[in-house]
């Protein structure tokens, strides 16, 4: 019998642990491989489910992918368990709320962060966020409970699902409930007017949006909606006035940037729309079928059919709903 190799007896088996998975997740994140990063962080959390650093880093990846509600669920869990040991969570939550359009909550958490960490790592970003939001404090509703915020997020996600699939009647029913339950949440009204218009209630949609903008003349969503409404109903003078205004506005938040780009596409200003799409962070908008629908449309109408097909094909791989639809530029009417 031969004597076993002594070196074999010195081999130490490598068993991956949470730290290994976490390091791999960070590495993938730094390379902007966000889906792979999520998988590594999920493995890390399977080893240590309550590790605050793992949860915080995973939330940042969710933010990059545009899954802001999932990010905030993790961050809220960390704050509940560890409190002010992880003060940065307040700023990260504020940033996610801003992207979701929940401006009152964004301001609340940004101010909490500045109160608790006046010289923290995100102080400059928090101050910048508050200045960008430029919120009218008279409209602030301090009585909103956390469970109401959760309900808003649930409604938002469901409405988003139907709007992205152009299921207008389903979206309208949910938005009517949402407006009744959360009358201060203005975004629901703009989405309601938009869904009404494409469901065929054009006169009512225009009247409601015009009334809203009279009472709230600073609302960008109203102007984008009305530009689309006037374009389709051929109200040229009002349309031209709005276009001049919108061409000089560059929103800060990614959701409004996307909305601006899709608006220019829907009203036939494809070169302008293409320029706006190029300013977007794709990683934050992969969850939006409309990103691929309208981006590919822009390329087609500026004469780059090859790029249009490439963007559309990518969108079909990301979203099965697109694979079931005809290419938007082949429809009788762009909606």
UniProtKB/TrEMBL annotation:
The identity of this protein, by name, is: Tetratricopeptide repeat protein
Tell me the classification of the organism that encodes this protein: Bacteria, Bacillati, Bacillota, Bacilli, Bacillales
- TPR repeat copies, ranges: 18-51
Q: Sorted alphabetically, which SMART domains does this protein's record hold? A: TPR (SM00028)
InterPro entries, A to Z: TPR-like_helical_dom_sf, TPR_rpt, Ycf3
What organism is listed for this UniProt entry?
Gracilibacillus xinjiangensis
Q: Which keywords does this Swiss-Prot/TrEMBL entry list?
A: Repeat, TPR repeat
* Highest taxon in the source lineage: Bacteria
Q: Which PANTHER family match?
A: TETRATRICOPEPTIDE REPEAT PROTEIN 6, UDP-N-ACETYLGLUCOSAMINE--PEPTIDE N-ACETYLGLUCOSAMINYLTRANSFERASE SPINDLY-RELATED
């Amino acid at each position: 019998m031969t004597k076993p190799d002594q070196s074999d007896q010195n081999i130490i088996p490598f068993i991956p642990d949470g730290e290994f998975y976490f390091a791999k997740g960070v590495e993938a994140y730094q390379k902007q491989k966000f889906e792979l990063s999520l998988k590594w962080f999920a493995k890390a959390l399977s080893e240590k489910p309550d590790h605050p650093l793992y949860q915080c880093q995973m939330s940042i990846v969710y933010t990059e992918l545009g899954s802001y509600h999932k990010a905030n669920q993790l961050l809220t869990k960390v704050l509940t368990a560890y409190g002010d040991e992880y003060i940065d969570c307040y700023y990260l939550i504020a940033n996610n709320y801003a992207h979701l359009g929940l401006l009152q909550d964004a301001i609340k958490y940004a101010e909490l962060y500045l109160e608790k960490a006046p010289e923290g790592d995100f102080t400059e970003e928090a101050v910048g966020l508050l200045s960008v939001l430029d919120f009218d404090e008279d409209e602030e509703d301090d009585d909103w409970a956390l469970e109401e915020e959760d309900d808003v997020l649930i409604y938002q996600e469901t409405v988003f699902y139907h709007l992205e699939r152009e299921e207008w009647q389903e979206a309208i029913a949910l938005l009517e409930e949402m407006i009744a339950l959360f009358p201060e949440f203005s975004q629901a009204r703009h989405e309601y007017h938009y869904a009404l218009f494409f469901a065929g209630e054009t006169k009512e949609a225009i009247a409601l949006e015009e009334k809203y903008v009279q009472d709230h003349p600073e609302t960008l969503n109203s102007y984008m909606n009305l530009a689309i409404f006037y374009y389709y109903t051929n109200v040229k003078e009002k349309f031209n006035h709005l276009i001049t205004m919108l061409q000089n506005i560059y929103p800060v938040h990614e959701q409004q940037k996307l909305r601006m780009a899709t608006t220019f596409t829907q009203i036939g200003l494809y070169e302008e729309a293409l320029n706006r799409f190029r300013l977007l962070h794709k990683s934050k908008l992969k969850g939006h079928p409309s990103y691929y629908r309208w981006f590919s449309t822009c390329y087609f109408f500026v004469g780059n059919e090859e790029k249009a097909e490439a963007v559309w094909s990518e969108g079909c791989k990301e979203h099965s709903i697109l694979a079931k639809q005809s290419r938007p530029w082949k429809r009788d009417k762009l909606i």
